[in-house]
Amino acid sequence: MGTNAPEYGAPRTLWRKLAEHPPPGEGAVRRGWRSPVRGVRLTSVLGLVLLGTLPLVIVTGLLDYAAYGPQFRQAFPLDVAWLRLPPFDWPTRPSWLFRLTQGLHVGLGIVLIPVVLAKLWSVIPKLFTWPPARSVAQVLERVSLLLLVGGILFEIATGVLNIQYAYLFGFDFYTAHYFGAWVFIGAFVAHVVIKLPRAVAALRRSLPDPDLAPLRPGPVTLSRRGVLALVGGGSLLLALLTVGQSLDGPLRRTALLLPRGRNPGEGPNGFQVNRSFAAAGIQPALTGPAWRLTLTGGGRTVRFDRAALLAMPQHTARLPIACVEGWSTQQTWTGVRLADLAALAGVPAPASAHVVSLERTGLFRQATLQANQVADRDALLALRVNGADLSADHGYPARIIVPALPGVHCTKWVASIDFRTDD
Predict the structure, then answer these.
(1) Assuming Cys at both sites, which of 145, 258, 391, 403 could form a disulfide with 269, CB separation 3.0 to 4.6 Å?
(2) What are the pLDDT digits (tens) for 337-371?
(3) How far apart are CA 102 and CA 330, in angstroms?
(4) Cα torsion through 152, 153, 155, 160, rounded to 10
């Protein structure tokens, strides 16, 4: 026992020495946090709200990544090592599945911003306590807290900038957001395991926390209920200013915080576009009378002009289209079933279909569709929308529309489709 005493005593000596030598200004910082509203009960309420909602943001974000078909190496980032999700075929039903998951991921993420900021405000004195830790366990807790705070602020900042089309990152958004999400997920799980018992106990009875109690309490200007009402009102306001982006109808015009689709234009083609014809840089001659759709598979190659495609049996379906930025809309599409085109190419039951656009640049100029997506009764090579020919911005002369498929994989300005018998 005697030989081990210094080893066990060393950590206690370290914490004591840290406590005896605070950094300059530490006391002034502590005295600056004067709000009497802060306390374990307030931060526990906010924490439990986030505990009930952040998992939904996490799950929908991971589902959206899976919707992009990582098994075909078309979900970004491409190489995620052991962070790769288990492969599975993204379903086509219900047809609004991606519209729901992406809308929840973006919309709920925005709505929770006031709650996250209030939570950080409620515990900020703890970030300046000295010593910063009093045990090895507390060191681990502080590290997880640092990753948690940094992770969620990073995810919020990059997510908001992305949906605002403000690409100010200097790095690839998809890669950074995906790996940042896993850093946050790990820290979130660790923090819940450490803090949940205390949060539940705090709601059952008043538990003091000297690190949250102000050294010099200021006058009461807002009650705890008032703080919660203010935070809830802020979240409600953000919901009203964003939810219209994911809904058709009058609420579309209330989506003041989101850049796309409040005034998409008039007529059958008057709805949102992510990438316009001009931005795609396609030569107009390529979509003119000389355009041909090339189908390959089964050892044959066949080509059709637009008139030949319009002469084929046409199918009409009302389907949503949803974008990674959070907006979505539902329109009525008419065209040739992909299953019928596969049969013409000599592959009646393809394992996948590789679609290539006339567009020559961009991450999403091509996409691979799963077998169930090709076979779906409403999966179309769309030629018309809402009873009119597609506009150039919406993919004329032909585009892909598949139920529950991410919008960027509903390839526009289709040049060719290769129906494959293996993945």
Answers:
(1) 391
(2) 999 999 999 999 999 999 999 998 888 899 999 99
(3) 14
(4) 140
The DSSP string of 70-81 is GGGT-SSSS--G
d(CA 95, CA 88): 17
Closest to 377 measured CA to CA, from 99, 98, 96, 93:
93
* Contacts with 192 (C-beta within 8 Å, 6 or more apart), sequence order: 51
User: pTM for the full model?
Assistant: 0.89
> Is the CB of residue 119 less than 8 Å from the CB of residue 46?
yes
Residue type, 178: Y
- CA atoms within a 13 Å half-sphere pointing along the CA-CB vector of 119: 19
Number of structural domains (the chain) is 2
Burial class of residue 123, CB neighbours in 10 A (0-12, 13-18, 19+): buried
Check if the beta carbon of residue 338 is closer than 8 Å to that of residue 353. Answer: yes
Q: Please state, in angstroms and rounded to a whole number, the distance separating the CA atoms of residues 403 and 377.
A: 9
Beta strands at 293-297 and 300-304: parallel, antiparallel or unpaired:
antiparallel
266 lies in a domain?
Answer: no
Q: Count CA atoms closer than 13 A to 110's CA, side-chain side.
A: 26
Average pLDDT over residues 209-228: 78
Instruction: Give the torsion sign (CA, 370, 245, 280, 398).
Output: positive
Q: Domain span at residue 363?
A: 277-420
Stated as kind and residue range, the H or E segment containing 399 is: strand 399-401
For residue range 262-279, list pLDDT tens digits in order: 667 789 999 888 889 999
Q: Could you tell me if 228 and 352 lie in one domain?
A: no
- Tell how strand 414-420 and strand 293-297 pair up: parallel
Query: Given the DSSP bridges, would you call strands 399-401 and 388-389 parallel, antiparallel or unpaired?
Result: unpaired
- Any domain includes 260: no
The contacts found for 108-111 with CB under 8 angstroms, 24 or more apart, are 108/53, 108/56, 108/57, 108/60, 109/57, 109/155, 109/156, 109/159, 110/160, 110/238, 110/239, 110/242, 110/257, 111/235, 111/238, 111/239, 111/242
- From the list 409, 416, 341, the residue with the least C-alpha distance to 380 is 341
Same domain, yes or no, for 47 and 131? yes
Nearest to 376 by CA among 93, 138, 7: 93
